[in-house]
Amino acid sequence: MQHRKICFIGAGNMAGAIIAGLVTSGYPADKITVCAPSGKNRDALKDKYGTLSSSDNIASAQTADVVVLAVKPQLMADVCSELQQQVDFSDKLVLSIAAGVSVERFYALLGDNLRIVRIMPNTPSLVGKGMSGLFAPQQVSEQDREFSSELMTAVGKVCWVETEAGINQVIAAAGSAPAYFFLFMEAMQQEAQRQGLSADNARLLVQQAASGAAALVEANPETPLSTLRENVTSKGGTTFAALNVFNERDLTAIVAQAMQAAVARAEEMEKQF
Ligand SMILES: NC(=O)C1=CN([C@@H]2O[C@H](COP(=O)(O)OP(=O)(O)OC[C@H]3O[C@@H](n4cnc5c(N)ncnc54)[C@H](OP(=O)(O)O)[C@@H]3O)[C@@H](O)[C@H]2O)C=CC1
Ligand SMILES: O=C(O)[C@@H]1CCC=N1
Fold first, then answer.
1. Which pLDDT value is given to residue 107?
2. Which of 54, 58, 150, 198 could bond to 1 as cystine, CB 3.0-4.6 Å?
């Protein structure tokens, strides 16, 4: 892939995960500058991966080919207003990983001709298992689209969505989704311990069952998830008994409501920020 000069504005959980994945996959660390007000996160990335560290968003963005906006949505307007005053974005590609900040809003903040791609990644990018959804307005060039795809492919898999609304659906299905699985695993670990397993064994059992299940899904892309579930479920057996509890409580409806809440919140944020 091309090695353009990248400046990350923000050094938190998500930027850190992408940077870790990028450098581990061979992206040159000296082409990545990480900006944040405090040294805590950006210097930790510098020490671990050899990236450059700066507290100066403007100077770093000025010399970059690609600016990745990786601050919290509620800070985006302030950060962009400051950048807009001193940075010429006409020769730069801007990648936003923020939830709930629309392309329209970025045009208002940084200029109508902005070359912008919205990316919705997730934290498994840290270990090369990320999933990113990408959206670009029509005028973004094929080259910029390709670069954005390649960048995120370095830390996982990518898919493009045709409308910007698709980004909010990606949030519900992938961006926020690691937390759903963590919550489920936490609940399992807690109950395994309550039943008498040691903390270490409870963690190991849940962790291995989850990664084993995910590996089976990945290894059998043509097999419906329902078949994989049925393969575990002997009629009248233990799994059947457990799944009955989930079904009685309508887990499917709970999941649907949770994903709808994620989309609704993203839409609300688009109005707020
Ligand atoms: N976490 C996730 O799983 C995902 C997050 N996202 C998106 O990523 C974005 C960042 O989220 P996340 O990484 O979780 O947030 P964090 O709170 O972990 O990180 C925010 C970062 O922004 C930095 N920051 C704050 N103010 C400024 C500023 N003025 N200039 C430059 N940097 C600044 C902070 O600096 P300091 O280091 O000094 O505290 C910190 O490094 C959000 O917009 C979110 O929607 C998208 C997909 C998944
Ligand atoms: O919770 C959030 O708003 C961000 C976006 C997706 C994951 N974390």
1. 98
2. 150
Ligand 2 pocket at CB < 6 A: 99, 171, 175-176
CA of 40 to the centre of ligand 1 (A): 13
pLDDT in tens, 59-82: 999 999 999 999 999 999 999 999
What span, in angstroms and rounded, lies between the C-alpha atoms of 257 and 252? Answer: 9
Which atom of ligand 2 lies nearest, measured to the CA of 99? Answer: 5
Closest protein CA for atom 5 of ligand 2:
99
Q: Decide if pLDDT at 1 tops 90.
A: no
The reply to whether ligand 1 has any atom less than 6 angstroms from the CB of 61 is no
Q: Is-contact 34 6, C-beta < 8 A?
A: no
| Nearest ligand to residue 130 Cα | 1
Give ipTM to 2 decimals.
0.99
Nearest to 28 by CA among 51, 45, 54: 51
Quote the percentage of the chain above a pLDDT of 90.
99
Name the residue at shortest CA distance from atom 15 of ligand 1. Answer: 12
Would the CA dihedral through 184, 168, 9, 127 be positive or negative?
positive
Joined tokens for residue 14: 């998500």
